[in-house]
Amino acid sequence: MLTKTNPAILYFGTPVVLVSSLNTDGSANLAPMSSAWWLGWRCMLGFGARSATPQNILRTGECVLNLPSAAMAPAVDRLALTTASDPVPESKQKRGYRHEEHKFARANLTPVPSEVVAPPRALECPIQLEARLAGSHQIGEDNVAIRGKLIALEVEIVRVHADSSLLVSGAPDRIDPDQWRPLIMSFQQFYGLTPRLQKSTLATIPESAYKMQPVPLVEETVKCGLVNADQ
Length: 231
Ligand SMILES: Cc1cc2nc3c(=O)[nH]c(=O)nc-3n(C[C@H](O)[C@H](O)[C@H](O)COP(=O)(O)O)c2cc1C
Prior knowledge:
Helix content is 11%, strand content 39%. It contains 4 helices and 18 strands. The protein has helices at 52-60, 73-78, 90-94, 103-107; strands spanning 14-15, 17-22, 28-33, 36-39, 42-48, 62-67, 82-83, 98-99, 111-112, 121-122, 127-139, 150-162, 167-168, 171-175, 184-186, 189-191, 212-218, 221-226. A hairpin with a 2-residue loop joins strand 17 and strand 18 (221-226). The longest helix has 9 residues, at 52-60. Mean pLDDT is 93; it is low at 215-231. Residues 16, 29, 31-35, 46-48, 51-53, 76, 80, 83-85, 97, 185 line the site of flavin mononucleotide.
């Protein structure tokens, strides 16, 4: 039987991303978030607009999306309720947030230089996506209760690093979904994925059909255009 319900949040389950960015003083920030989804080599990131991380990305145009595995839940949890903002905004103070200057150390993760962007990667994350800002969109502009509070950032992935154990053997440009065990956040709780359930009809389309075609180089970044987005 279905019943009407009014949950305060509708976070039905998305992968956790540890976003590294550079603070105004040049130090590295590392923030957990999970309002993220990908289309081609573009990613949409949803943030509380006043958090340090979206402000850093808007100012510098760069970030790294570090994807923790399910096994890394304890590291991610050590970053919960921390912010690079100092002073801590009142709305975050009320929820128990505190200022943390050294996010990588707090999480016990190792910052390593990126290849294309300035923010460092998190070494222990099995997937690291270097990214550049491509656009931004205010969320809820039509609603006075939300206006100015939420922002969606579109970033372009400019370099993908993946642990070699996650790659399909004999196909170095494919991630094996049977090997990749993402950390999932659902309604503020951590989960992993179950093993594959059944054969997928969509997977009869070869991944190469979705290949992004490189277009002329901008600096050392490969700008991409989607050839086949039909899913
Ligand atoms: C697992 C997890 C997922 C989160 N998802 C989001 C999110 O999708 N968007 C967001 O704005 N904040 C999210 N947060 C809260 C941010 O981490 C929080 O706003 C933090 O203060 C951001 O760091 P910063 O203030 O240094 O930028 C999440 C926190 C955790 C622990």
